[in-house]
Amino acid sequence: MTRAMNQPYAGGVRVEYLAHAPVFLHGASTGKRYEFPALYSVQWVDSADVGQLLRTPYFRVVSGV
The whole model's pTM is what? Predict the structure, then answer.
């Protein structure tokens, strides 16, 4: 895992994965690789890539750290 996925950082947003199958994807805006290995995985996603994920029913933004 990269730092962007598991630790808070400036410009990052916590995103929760809501599907069952593991998924690996690249952010459309940044090209960063994101890994969501299981149901309800929470990862830090660059704010520039969040919109891409939220256009699907499989992701949601979560609050708190």
Answer: 0.79
